[in-house]
Amino acid sequence: MTPRRKRLLVVLGIFGGVSAAVALAVVAGRQNISFYYVPSQVALGKAPIDKQFRIGGLVMQGSVRRKPGDLTVHFVLTDYAHQVPVKYTGVLPDLFREGQGIIAHGQMGPNGVFVADQVLAKHDSKYMPPAMAAALKKNARFKPTT
Amino acid sequence: MPWFFVVAAGMIGYGLVDGLVFAPPDYQQGDAFRIIYVHAPSAWLSLFSYSTMAFAGAVALIWRIKVGYAVAAAAAPIGASFTLAALVTGSLWGRPMWGTYWAWDPRLTSELILLFLYFGVISLRQAFEDPARGDRASALLGIVGFVNVPIVHFSVYWWNSLHQGGTVMRLGKPEMPGSMLWPLLAMLCGFMFFFGAVLCMRVRGEILLRERQATWVREAVQA
Fold first, then answer.
1. How far is B152 from B110, CA to CA, in rounded Å?
2. A36-137 belongs to which CATH class?
């Protein structure tokens, strides 16, 4: 074996070993690395109900309720399989709308309502001009959330 | 090399004007989406520079080609700058859109680790008295750290993340109409050419510095 070949194998070996180690760690910690749980995981008891966690889903159409003269807002998060009601007091991000993806951080209340202390809006990877969104809405092939 | 700068300036110039002035606003984000014209190319180049650096280091380490170390050393600070630019622009966009400057999201965290890897590679090179050992150690760190590059890219697909998936760098059609896409692609190519030009310039300086004892350098300096 030439020294060059040996060095190639050593470098590949080190890289392969580190990749394997990282891959194993990633697979083992898959759930911990995820930023949020979806409502189905909460319903199936896979979310840490007794601790603080993040829950992500779509704001259900027609579920947003506000009290007049108060910043408290109630809404329901859904992943089309299960729903979780959420209560939040504070300023909502610009992108918060019905049908929009939202991530709420907080804790499950005793009555099954998730009490959030932070609400983040998730943006999808679609970009389009307003005129195009309006045209698509007309054709009803795509449902923009404005 | 001057041609690289000319092409880069042309494409970035077109991309900036078309992207910031003529492209239509987004239907949800309004004008705030325009930060993508700097953010996405910076983020892409942060990974591309890292790949270049790791590849150059591997070539130098395996085939004992000294220019490889010079290329790796020259690429590191450029890549670190792109990474920082991507993190800062993303953070500025995240505040109004997501509602927070920073979140410990898989994409954001892995990009931050990428920045620290760049810092590690840069400082490890200078930590040795013997420059040859510093070169070898930092090349090895660069290669090992390359594990992080696919993690940054695929983090948005592997895990539930706050960061959205790719709009352009994905399988299938880009999720963006041409009027928004063309300036973005121009910015991307412009950034690539800019990287190429700056890399050539820095490699030249790096080689002159490394070969300062060589007769050809002395002759070139005196001439």
1. 5
2. mainly beta
